[in-house]
UniProtKB/TrEMBL annotation:
This is Bacteriophage N4 adsorption protein A C-terminal domain-containing protein. Pfam families: NfrA_C. Gene3D superfamilies: Tetratricopeptide repeat domain. InterPro entries: NfrA_C, TPR-like_helical_dom_sf.
């Protein structure tokens, strides 16, 4: 635009001089004088239109001026500049040609012609770049030839033209243009490198190598330019089959250079198999002139290395891993690493595929191959985990120590290795030393799982919560977060995670098997239970001992019918299965064929507290005060233990094995009475009905009772077949059925003692 303003000022000066000259002469009469004045007026108006950037208007006025006064060069110059500014380069060229045919200011004409040449060159250059981006190589060559013709001094256009010629395999033309560019830029490496490729295409490898040697020896090259030249030189050497030369020029680049790595692999394979192997495709390097100063200095960029042997297999393996197709991933990884055993990334990919397929020994071999190529702390840590899995504890510990000595691992990885070696205290200290500023929501999730591994449930809960607050808790971690909260005794927080997991499963965001989903609902039911009621009615021979209620009276030989009810409350919730319950209970005999007390006379009550001290074992400790109209008030201490398999519902099958064991010991402290009871039922449960909530349980029973208050036959035992029918109810979307009623009928054969364990036994139970 500054050039256009200078041109406009020149035009103004010419017009002003013409005005002064016209003013100093006597007025001429006739048509010639009027034509000259009209031409002057049109040119003056054209100049003003040009000044306000109305270039089409200026061109129209200038054209009128040239028609009225065709012998005025300044008018032709005004027309040429106006047409050029409005985008009509061809018209501008014609106007300037006419200007050259009449006398006038040669300097102004030269400047106008230079403007035209620059504009035409820039347009051709832009079209050349666009054609290359569109893949139109021949169009790029045509436009580049025009750009060079209009701006022969512009080396940037020449370099891009050489690139296009190389892509079109016009090696002779490429050599010619690159040689011309070397003459323009004798100290530039780019034209030398391009000419090397042209000469290689002309089957003159010695001259090609000499050009690249000369390019590498240019002074003042920055590190980025040197790197690209070394990659280009390696490509040329590989195309010539010279693996040693390729490794030599790449030696200055770091071992971690992602572009040098495949070239080194090709070079090693070329050295190992000089007469065989795939040919190395030599592709022309790219030229970037976007940041060049006046388009005279361009950046050389090496072409992408052709795929290494096994590349297609490696790509397929990566894709299969993403698609969770584990077996295909492993098959393709084996092929990839067999084709290119020195590709370290592929060895690591092979390791990951083997891990996904649970092929631990193969994963260890792949990890070892990767470490042989280049040891690093992360892979040592990974192999330590693998070796521990396959039972190589000594090797695992050695790898862990080496990884820790390297000191390049994230804190949570180091803590995990320490935990694996049994150094839990150091693991916790390592986690505690992590600066808060280094912890992101994502690695908070890693910290949560590590804390779970070392048994720090509270730290895991906090880390899960922080990851959740930062948006880094995926649906697949909701259950883990819930169990961490449950184990650290934050029941409401755990329920929140479990409910979100159930929602995610129902919304197809989280894959959960039906039984797993049901078990999660069962956990929610356990966590949210604050109170409950148990009620039972039993008909059997004699009263004997009732589970939970203790000694209940009744004779040992005659039929009795007894009922009991208990209500309980958990003041502190689930407490990770170590809950405390306050309870009140009552028990009475409804009918006694042996003549014992019944109704209110037989009532026995009790209030007390019980505690489940172990999370994973169903052990209960209880202390209560018993009372009643015909019993001695006393303190009753009890210990009970139960173990069952398949006692809850199954939603993934119609039948399953079930076993229930219950044992209880009690002592009345003031009356010095001891009792004990144990029972075992083993059978198979069957779903009956259509809704999957009614269970039939045919089984075999074995039991024994002991009551020290009896004068004779303190112990009785029996076995026999039985059947139970249980109906579950009280459930919702988040909780499994919380209540059930159960009717059990058995026929017991006496093994020893009195008849308490003999005959028909019927029990009805409500657990609400």
């Amino acid at each position: 635009m500054a050039q256009q303003q200078r041109n406009a000022l020149a035009l103004a000066a010419v017009l002003a001089l013409a005005s002064f000259s016209a003013a100093g002469q006597p007025a001429a009469a006739g048509a010639a004088a009027r034509g000259s004045q009209a031409a002057h007026a049109a040119a003056d108006a054209g100049y003003k239109a040009y000044a306000r950037r109305d270039y089409p208007g200026a061109a129209e006025l200038a054209r009128r001026a040239t028609q009225l006064a065709p012998d005025r060069r300044d008018y032709w110059l005004l027309l040429g500049e106006s047409l050029l500014a409005s985008g009509d380069a061809a018209g501008a060229e014609q106007a300037l040609a006419r200007a050259g045919q009449v006398a006038g200011d040669d300097a102004a004409l030269g400047r106008a012609r230079a403007d035209l040449a620059r504009t035409r060159a820039q347009a051709a250059g832009a079209a050349m770049y666009q054609a290359l981006q569109a893949g139109d190589v021949k169009g790029a060559i045509a436009q580049g030839t025009d750009a060079v013709r209009w701006a022969p001094e512009n080396a940037g256009y020449r370099l891009v033209l050489v690139h296009a010629l190389l892509r079109d395999r016009r090696f002779a033309d490429a050599e010619r243009v690159s040689s011309e560019t070397i003459a323009l830029l004798p100290d530039s490496a780019a034209p030398l490198a391009l000419r090397a490729y042209a000469r290689q295409g002309l089957n003159r490898p010695a001259e090609a190598g000499a050009d690249l040697d000369r390019a590498l020896q240019q002074r003042g090259l920055d590190a980025a330019t040197q790197r690209q030249l070394r990659l280009v030189a390696a490509d040329l050497a590989l195309a010539q089959g010279n693996g040693e030369r390729a490794l030599q020029v790449l030696a200055a680049l770091p071992a971690t250079d992602a572009d040098a790595d495949p070239r080194r692999e090709f070079a090693r394979q070329r050295i190992a198999r000089p007469a065989g192997g795939a040919a190395y495709a030599l592709n022309a390097p790219a030229i970037d002139c976007s940041k060049a100063d006046a388009s005279q200095a361009c950046t050389l960029q090496a072409a992408a290395a052709p795929p290494s042997p096994g590349f297609a297999n490696a790509t397929a393996a990566y894709r299969a891993l993403e698609q969770k197709d584990v077996q295909r991933a492993l098959e393709q990884a084996r092929l990839a690493t067999a084709a290119s055993p020195a590709q370290r990334d592929w060895q690591l990919m092979h390791m990951n595929a083997a891990l996904a397929a649970d092929a631990w020994a193969e994963a260890e071999r792949a990890a070892t191959a990767a470490l042989d190529l280049r040891p690093d702390a992360q892979t040592l840590a990974q192999r330590s985990i693998i070796r521990r899995k396959v039972g190589n504890v000594a090797g695992a510990n050695a790898d862990a120590e080496a990884a820790l000595q390297a000191g390049q691992l994230p804190a949570q990885t180091e803590a995990g290795l320490l935990a694996d070696m049994g150094r839990t205290r150091e693991a916790r200290e390592r986690l505690a030393a992590v600066p808060a500023g280094e912890v992101t929501p994502q690695n908070r999730l890693d910290l949560a799982y590590l804390s779970t591994r070392i048994g720090d449930s509270e730290a895991a809960r906090q880390a899960f919560a922080q990851a959740d607050a930062g948006g880094a808790l995926p649906p697949g971690s909701l259950l883990d977060a819930g169990y961490a909260a449950m184990k650290s005794r934050h029941d409401e927080e755990a329920v929140g995670y479990f409910r979100r997991a159930i929602d995610a499963a129902n919304g197809l965001q989280l894959r959960m098997e039906p039984q797993m989903l049901y078990d999660t609902r069962r956990t929610v039911a356990d966590l949210t239970r604050k109170w409950g009621v148990l009620a039972s009615i039993t008909m059997r021979n004699g009263g004997g001992v009732q589970p939970g209620f203790g000694v209940t009276g009744g004779t040992g030989a005659r039929r009795t019918t007894q009922a009991g009810v208990e209500g309980y409350y958990r003041p502190w919730g689930w407490r990770n299965g170590e809950f405390v319950e306050l309870f009140a209970r009552g028990f009475m005999t409804l009918d006694d064929r042996g003549g014992g007390s019944t109704g209110g006379d037989s009532f026995q009550g009790g209030v007390g507290v019980r505690w489940k001290p172990l999370t994973t074992q169903n052990l209960m400790l209880s202390l209560s005060r018993t009372f009643g109209p015909n019993v001695n008030d006393d303190w009753l201490a009890q210990i009970g233990y139960s173990y069952d398999v398949g006692n809850d519902l199954r939603v993934d099958r119609r039948d399953w094995t079930t076993m229930r064991f219950y044992g209880e010991l009690g002592r009345y402290l003031e009356n010095d009475i001891n009792y004990g009871i144990a029972s075992l039922m083993v059978g198979r449960s069957y779903l009956v009905g259509g809704d999957g909530r009614t269970v039939l349980f045919p089984h075999l029973f074995a039991g024994v009772e002991y009551d020290s208050s009896l004068a004779t036959d303190k112990t009785a035992s029996g076995v026999g077949p039985g059947v139970s029918l249980r109906r579950w109810f009280r459930e919702d979307a988040y909780t499994a059925p919380r209540s059930y009623w159960d009717v059990t009928m058995q026929y017991r054969f006496k093994i020893g003692g009195d008849d308490r364990m003999k005959g028909l036994y019927i029990n009805g139970l409500l657990n609400y």
